[in-house]
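Reopening this ticket.

The earlier resolution said the output was attached, but the attachment link was broken on my side. Pasting everything inline this time so it's all in one place.
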Amino acid sequence: MTESFLQYVWQHQLLDHGLATVDGQPVVVLRTGEYNHDSGPDFFNARVRVGDVEWVGSVEIHIRTSDWKAHHHSEDKAYNNIVLHVVYEHDCDIALQDGRIPPTMELRPYLHPSLVANYDALVRPSGDEAIPCRKKLVEVPELVIKTFMERLTIERIEAKTEVAKRLLNESRGGWEQTCYWLMAHYFGGKVNALPFELLAKATDHRLLARWKDNPRRIEALLMGQAGILDGFFEDDYPRQLQTEYNAIGGAAALNPIGGYLWKYYCLRPSSLPTIRISQFAQLLSKSSSLFATLLSMNNAREIEKLFDQHAAEYWDNHYRFDKTTAKSSVKRIGKMQADLLIINAWVPLLFLYGAEHGQQNYKDQALDLIIQLPAEDNVVIRRWRQAGMEVSNAAESQALLQLYNRYCIGRRCLECGIGYQILKHK
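Inline output:
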């Protein structure tokens, strides 16, 4: 038994009828009060009728009445306004600082056995179950799950806008620059997100826009700014890139980032920085205004096509400069990676754009885009599928990722809409 569970029970009034204090006075809860997340009593502005007297004030909740003394509440004036002391087990009498004895109600007789059993099953699942409610999901109405999933999708997108907000602040409200930086951040994946972002910040997008339709020059500029064009090369292609970069450097003040920042270890060959930078150069060569271009698109397939660029031909049989591979293949971004760019970068930025400008149509468009995309396939989504959840699109897979990361991992079932339904099920 925990105080958080008792607070939850009180807040949602998951109690059997016929409430009474320990000395037999009937209790009627007219208003549970406002849950207090700070120090002081658990609920403010509660309204209860004890016997024939109606009280307005605070409610304090404990596992045992003696916890009042253990927590030194008698010494704190903040607790002088208590109108009801709610406990799981009454084991002693207590008094407020002014000497008044508050009404005390013992919850134990009013907790339905199934409520306690459901709570135990959620917070203490058997084995190493990653999803606490896995065995009880069948008890939850489909409409409840659907409604909560819609809320989780929004919650997930709003959480993802944090990176975009940071970059927007750094760019002083420049949406084109923010879009360029954000795309670079996610082009790097989890491992190289930071160096890719630093690369974008070190390379003015307006400078790159001068060479729209010239992807090799853009690649030369990015590779040089990435700090990976230093030294001597045997192949013609990197030497040509060096020449291009040096020529640009003669006309512009360029400050490359350190090549040591890039991570290569444990990456799939197709995710190495050289490949990703070349693909990014190809994307930037398609438009001098990436944000404006994306803003004009409302179809996921159209955006996938824009994102699905391939690295320069040199990389068909290379992953690093001067090192030829045995097999030749075009290094495309691919549909899966393009979808991840839409989910992680463009949808949050579009949603943020709508929120910042008070235009709901852009927020709706962002939601519609991820509904158009297929569900992701990863270990978390596979766990949900095994638990019986149907996942038909990326909006639903994003919702389930949010549910797992935000609620399941920390066993925050008391804050979960699905957990609430399971708890009150009899």
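Reporter confirms the inline version is readable. The first helix runs from residue 3 to 12. The radius of gyration is 29 Å.
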